[in-house]
Amino acid sequence: MGSSPPFSIANNNMCRLPLFIAEKETPGEDGFQERDAMDQEVFIARQEQDLAARIPGVLQQRKDLGLEGLVHGLDSVIISTEPGRLELSAEELLWYTGLTLEAHFEDDSFTTLVLGTKGSASFLLRARKKGENPFDAVNSAQKTRNLPNTRLETFVFRTTGLERYVEIQTERGIRFMTTDITDYPHFRFIQTMPSRYTGNSLGFIEWTGEKGGYAPHDAVQLPHSPKKPDLPHLANIHGLDHAATRVKAIERNDAIIEFMELTTYSFDFAVFVRSLNSITSVARLSSDDFAMVFTSGIAPFRENTDPGPTEMFIRNYGTRVHHIAFQTDRVEDTYNALKKDGLEFLVALVGSEKEGLKQTFSLPSPHTMLVNEYIHRYQGFDGFFTKSNVEMLTRVTGKQ
Ligand SMILES: [Fe+2]
After folding, report:
1. Cβ–Cβ < 8 Å for 150, 80
2. List of domains in the chain
3. Which residues surround ligand 1, an ion (CB under 5 A)?
4. CB neighbour class for 18 (10 Å; exposed up to 12, middle 13-18, buried from 19)
5. How far apart are CA 325 and CA 77, in angstroms?
6. First and final CA of the chain: distance in angstroms?
7. How many C-beta neighbours within 10 Å does residue 308 have?
8. Cβ pair 96, 112 in contact under 8 A
9. Cα 166 to ligand 1 centroid, rounded to whole Å
10. In whole angstroms, what is the distance from residue 275 CA to residue 350 CA?
11. Is residue 28 scored above 50 in pLDDT?
């Protein structure tokens, strides 16, 4: 870490709440000017103090309302595509990740492909067949006009006591997409309306039958296609490590607090990159679980100043998930093999074995707009990210 020591805030849930602050960067780099520096320090202080002040209350409220223990880890993610791109989206994930096709079915409302791999949240790729899209408003942005229905829409969490959970959250004013929990052959399910801060929905699933049986009553099974290519390096690519959602600077804390109020996650740490006007904030359930990452600007978008890659991305694509990260072994060989197979990258591998971490970003998918991250943490690395990697990876997303 840099010269600034992490500071700790005691709270009821975690013994520490470190906020890792980026070291001072040189004014003049990347359009970052001296005159902005003071402004930025004010915004940083505001971000930190406001979040630190709000977290203990959320943790206490979760306890008081009886929410603790009802929501667990990530079960699945739902990625919506345009109907003509559904199979292409699946094909791309089959070729460039370790995911395999587990089910393919069609019902009245959707065509769905279920992809999965050991120890990972499942991926439900789906295209709407009819009806209104509740994500219409949040999907619409300058560069998304050709893909108006495309988004990683929903993060689905495993629950026990779904009935109770919905009662408590409804009482708190949370709006769900359906008035009641929906019963499926193997599970019960409900999801929130898209968040005003992230555009994402959170889903809650309670398994009552065979885990992984996502098909509804009226589903018609479709052929198991597209096929998984027989490529040995894909065995090096494992489950979903984290996903990063880009949110507006001014709504970063609201987005984190809202997520904590709806799940059992805790805010873990943040990396500030002043020169790129960027904060990467990480919320976690435990060190073994999927991590939810929020990327935001430090200062809000202003005309005639360089907004940095995060605020610019939101201008172009709206608030949405920017990348999905897969744990990857033998990361150099895997990166080279993926490249040979036609996957293009925003950047070569960043980081080193010495630092404990290597990562890279693919180009955004033409079908889902999602970037794939491949991440390898070397043995003995006890962190989650390194500041230098965060900075390099954030910088290259300015090319999007
Ligand atoms: Fe990431």
Report:
1. yes
2. 29-65+233-399 (3.10.180.10), 71-230 (3.10.180.10)
3. 244, 325, 373
4. middle
5. 13
6. 28
7. 27
8. no
9. 31
10. 18
11. no
- Let me know: does 250 contact 314? Beta carbons within 8 Å: no
Find out whether 47 and 279 touch, Cβ atoms under 8 Å: yes
Read off the amino acid at residue 39. Answer: D
Residue with token string 């960067």: 25
**Look-up: residue for tokens 């955004």?**
364
Question: Would you state the pLDDT for residue 36?
Answer: 66
Nearest 5°: phi and psi at 235? -70, -15
Give the pair of three-digit tokens for residue 231: 């490529």
State the amino acid at position 289 in one-letter form.
D
- Secondary structure element (H or E) that encloses residue 363, with its range: none
pLDDT recorded at residue 227: 95
Average pLDDT over residues 125-154: 97
d(CA 116, CA 76): 9
Q: Tell how far the Cα of 324 is from the centroid of ligand 1, in angstroms.
A: 7
DSSP secondary structure, 221-279, as one string: E----SPPP--GGGGGEEEEEEEEEEE-GGGHHHHHHHHHHHSS-EEEEEEEEGGGTEE
Ligand 1 center to 280 CA (angstroms):
9
| Residue 159 tokens, joined | 């629950």
**161 Cα to the center of ligand 1, angstroms:** 32
CA of residue 1 to ligand 1 center, whole Å: 18
Q: Which two tokens stand for residue 353?
A: 């074995």
| Global pTM value | 0.91
CA 326 to ligand 1 centroid distance, Å? 9
CA of 292 to the centre of ligand 1 (A): 9
Average pLDDT for the chain: 90
CA atoms of 68 and 72, how far apart (whole Å): 9
